[in-house]
């Protein structure tokens, strides 16, 4: 079949290996621990599970394309207007809608730092956009270089804070500088805060919500991480009514399914679950830091639910050896970090099993 050359060149997204796949491949019968995709190790809120059960009999109906009740509740919770909100089939879909809506001309350039969330690159390549990658300085965004790279063709700038896979954050004043430097009529600044609920629990994470009041800014958040609903695919954007209106014109009418809408609505009211998830993450993080310290492993201080660490051994080797032991994490070799891996912070038990196996693999 004929495809354009840019489609031929694409490489499909490689996510964390699914548990079932590893079981099949290695014939592992026992427990498999997946700490590879920054999912919530406590699972979803019980209230969300109840909501999923109660909506099961209604899935013969199409979902409400406007997400009316969810929008109402979230607007109330965030203190924004309904017109400021848009929902997507995961925040991934919103990334795609942003490209389809705002980066439509051949000469359009997409600007992001690297390593950062790979979907900016993958989706951008799938739309055959010019991708301008600014290397991280150390493990942080190089805001001066990013600002220098802005030009008349820059259509979308992606800022990811906390940044996946480093866990580092961007200072609010630096984000404001990027907004200031970008043309309000031409350039959309996307602030991807997928790990917001974890980050805001840290004393020095600055609230960014009000930045949506800038006419060329959209903030993305998701129910996939702290809310524990990754399998249902639902995320949201907060932006000016005009940006939301444009995105809505391009959005497929029933993009967020009925189960996801009900579950997210219930999850929003379960503050206790979020509190427990964030606390579990904090305790797990302290434990992993202290074990890494004892093992002489260096790591980057994280504001999210994952840690980037340096095994000082070939990352692919460490990854494969852990896989054989039923533990799935992520090698960062593909990002140019040849000896680094990213591990999602799990439950106490999962973290302990991970550390025990890591010690075996590294012989420490
Ligand atoms: C930075 C970042 N943005 C967006 C996403 C996508 O989340 P969703 O499940 O809402 O599509 C992820 C998922 O890993 C992420 O790490």
> Main beta sheet, described?
7 strands, mixed
Domain count: the total is 2
Structural class: alpha/beta
CATH topology of the largest domain: Aspartate Aminotransferase, domain 2
The CATH superfamily of the largest domain appears as: Type I PLP-dependent aspartate aminotransferase-like (Major domain)
What can you see in these coordinates?
With 364 residues, the protein is α/β, with parallel strands linked by helices. It folds into two domains: 5-43 and 272-362, Aspartate Aminotransferase, domain 1; 46-269, Type I PLP-dependent aspartate aminotransferase-like (Major domain) (Aspartate Aminotransferase, domain 2, 3-Layer(aba) Sandwich). It is built from 14 helices and 13 strands. It has helices spanning 5-9, 19-26, 46-55, 68-78, 91-102, 119-126, 143-149, 172-181, 196-199, 241-250, 258-268, 271-295, 315-324, 348-362; strands spanning 33-34, 85-88, 109-114, 130-135, 154-160, 188-192, 217-222, 235-239, 298-299, 306-310, 327-328, 330-331, 340-344. Helix 8 links the parallel strand 5 and strand 6. Helix 5 (91-102) packs across helix 6. Bound molecules: pyridoxal-5'-phosphate. Pyridoxal-5'-phosphate (PLP) binds at residues 38, 90-92, 117, 160, 164, 192, 194, 222, 224, 230, 235.
